[in-house]
Amino acid sequence: MRVSLWFLAALAGLLPAVAPAAEPAPPLVVTELNGQSFDLGALRGKVVVVNFFASWCPPCREEMPALSAFYRDYRARGVEVIGLSADRERDRADVLAISRGIGYPMAMLRDATENGFGMPNALPAAYLIDAKGFLRGEIVSEGQPITEDRLAAAVLPLLPAGPPASPGGDNVPNR
């Protein structure tokens, strides 16, 4: 019996608990808080982290700096992150305040014109979409917020092969 490296890495806790899936990622089209349009289907060639959160969720807020740092460091290598707030419309001001200190785009889930993900069962939750547009896994907090190391272990193997690039996407213009 052949054991894949992915399986061994998953057992070691380095990858998400969900096996690589052969199913296309669900559609997601939403207007970001800054007014730009986010269309998951238009991001082929990039690895995307779709992170569901709420302003009232302490573990969600705890992991935001790690998501922001990871996005900043790996954006130039083809990583995109979108934060989707499950907050109610009346809490939009709270979400806007949070977004000011975060480097990745955020949107209100209620503003989605297409959302094939639905509402997650628990918050925070992050879905991983590979460069070909396939859903490759989910990172759930299970009492542990997402860290840069957990993100790197789960996301970096999904990046398309290409010339080596060092982390640091600060000088990359917005999409």
What distinguishing features does this structure have?
disordered N terminus, alpha/beta, disordered C terminus, 175 residues, Glutaredoxin, seven-stranded mixed sheet
Supply the number of structural domains: 1
Percent of residues in helices comes to: 10-25%
The helix-strand sequence is: HEEEHEHEEEH
Name the assembly state.
single chain
Spatial strand sequence of the major β-sheet: 2-1-5-4-3-6-7
Tally of DSSP β-strands: 7
Principal-axes shape call: globular
The first-level CATH class name: Alpha Beta
Q: What Rg do the Cα atoms give?
A: 15 Å
- How far apart the termini lie comes to 45 Å
| Annotated CATH homologous superfamily | Glutaredoxin
Largest sheet: 7 strands, mixed
Q: Please work out how many helical segments DSSP would assign.
A: 4
Low-pLDDT runs of 5+ residues are 1-21, 164-175
Strand content: 15-25%
| Helix-strand makeup class | alpha/beta
* Secondary-structure arrangement, i.e. CATH architecture: 3-Layer(aba) Sandwich
Describe the protein's architecture and organization.
With 175 residues, the chain is an alpha/beta fold. It has a single domain (30-158), classed as Glutaredoxin, CATH 3.40.30.10. Helix content is 23%, strand content 25%. It has a seven-stranded mixed β-sheet with strand order 2-1-5-4-3-6-7. The longest helix is centred in the middle third of the chain and has 17 residues, at 58-74. The termini are far apart.
